[in-house]
Design goal:
56% helix; 456 residues; globular; alpha/beta; single chain; 2 domains; binds zinc ion; 18 helices; two-stranded antiparallel ribbon; OTT_1508_deam-like
Length: 456
């Protein structure tokens, strides 16, 4: 795609910054959070429903992200966006999914789950594997947590709220202690997961029943008092383990929990069936192929100037001995507009076409990256709008395309240059390990999560 000279140069500068920050393992922990506390109650419900729609369309292909928002002009319509080309398969999936959730006869969570087990199998399998890992890690530390950090209350219902039916069906009239129930849940979840065929979810015998059993066990453990208390601990060690487990439990339940809420609200929003369309083409963006050149010294020079160049290059070379090789491998970057920005720009044509006196939620299949989060904040500031996604993970991707909105783009470029300058002079403590210490699976994971060479 041909860009004008100014946009082309700005995109080149930005992609260089983002590439170096990404390779250094940079993420902004101050922005890494959900914005739940600042959402209006209506926004909170809507964004959870929209997040579920976006998640339902996602197959876990590398770099694939979907976003969705409501167009309230002339009757309610869902506007869908993707950070890559929309395929016939995507459109068919959207049509089938919306038909399923609009159909008053078929709208049961289990019917929709059957659809998701096919469309989102890889995503669901990944969540189950991550849950197993978190449960195992937590179980290994459990005795230490119990010895140093926790006292059980005498009542099982206090320790495990809303678990009466579960206890009746699992234990009958047998008297068990809270610690026993906790151990049973921690051992039981990997046992249930053994029942899944994670390579081919559809080959799992009694898939729906196994998944429902897993979700129930996850919900009981997630609500447990011990997990809530450890997540609030001032000691970072149990808190980190507990937060990881709680996050993985929530992710494992997300499809079922999200669907229940979606099904509950969809009839109110779309009594005559869900209307949707894909976001249209956006003109004047930084979508192109950027050639970053053979080495990263230009990017460092543009960021720090000549006086600090030699020191920064020497330190980079020492701390990240694989940097030159990775930079070379990724020197061609295909930039794409991220899904949430695509939807926002589609609905902002004209800019004040929507009523922005209230929050305008955009649902996403994953949290927004740092550039999207900063760009949306700056856009709101510039145009008096009120867009938001459900949160940001604070990471950066070289393939992030400038959306082509002058001052707002400039703000993100400046922010990234300042962050890179700071990172080059004060190397982050969360730097990645040298190549020799990184496994192939980590590299594969990294490729899946950032689609670095291609999309996101
Ligand atoms: Zn993004």
């Amino acid at each position: 795609m041909e860009l004008d000279l100014e946009m082309s140069y700005k995109q080149y500068l930005l992609s260089g910054c983002l590439q170096l920050l990404n390779l250094m393992g940079y993420s902004d922990s101050s922005i890494e959070c959900s914005n739940k506390a600042t959402r209006a109650p209506d926004t909170n419900t809507t964004i959870r429903v929209l997040d579920t729609v976006a998640l339902a369309l996602t197959t876990r292909k590398p770099g694939e992200v979907f976003a969705v928002a409501l167009d309230t002009r002339g009757g309610l319509t869902l506007v869908l966006g993707k950070n890559d080309d929309v395929t016939a398969d995507d459109d068919r999936a959207a049509r089938d999914f919306f038909k399923l959730i609009s159909d008053s006869e078929a709208t049961q969570t289990c019917d929709v789950l059957s659809f998701l087990f096919s469309r989102c199998a890889a995503n669901i399998a990944e969540r189950i594997m991550k849950l197993n890992q978190a449960v195992n890690e937590f179980s290994c530390c459990l005795n230490d947590f119990l010895r140093t950090h926790y006292f059980f209350l005498p009542s099982l219902e206090d320790e495990f709220p809303l678990s009466l039916d579960y206890r009746k069906s699992k234990y009958g009239g047998e008297q068990i202690s809270s610690v026993q129930m906790l151990r049973d849940l921690l051992e039981g979840i990997p046992d249930i997961n053994e029942g899944f065929n994670l390579w081919d979810l559809s080959e799992t015998p009694g898939l729906l029943a196994v998944y429902s059993e897993l979700v129930l066990a996850c919900q009981i453990l997630r609500r447990s008092r011990i997990l809530c208390q450890l997540c609030k601990s001032t000691d970072p060690w149990p808190r980190t383990q507990a937060e990881k487990l709680r996050r993985c439990l929530a992710m494992a339940c997300h499809y079922q929990d999200g669907l229940s809420e979606l099904i509950k609200h969809v009839k109110g929003l779309f009594p005559d069936g869900v209307k949707y369309r894909w976001a249209g083409d956006i003109e004047g963006t930084g979508e192109t192929t950027v050639n970053l050149g053979g080495d990263y010294s230009d990017t460092v020079r543009q960021t720090l100037g000549d006086s600090l160049l030699d020191d920064a290059l020497a330190t980079l070379c020492f701390k990240f001995p694989w940097m030159a090789r990775k930079w070379h491998k990724r020197c061609s970057v295909t930039t794409r507009l991220h899904a949430e920005i695509r939807v926002l720009l589609d609905l902002s044509n004209p800019v004040h076409g929507l009523d922005h006196s209230e929050q305008q939620p955009i649902g996403c299949s994953k949290w927004s990256c740092l550039c999207c989060a900063l760009w949306i904040l700056a856009y709101n500031e510039e145009y008096g709008t009120n867009w938001l996604t459900s949160g940001s993970h604070g990471k950066v991707y070289a393939a992030w395309a400038l959306p082509g909105r002058g001052k707002v783009d400039e703000h993100v470029l400046t922010e990234m240059q300042v962050r890179l300058a700071h990172a080059l002079q004060h190397f982050p403590t969360n730097q990645r390990l040298p190549d020799a210490e990184r496994s192939e699976s980590e590299d594969a994971e990294e490729k899946l999560s950032d689609g670095a060479a291609k999309v996101r």
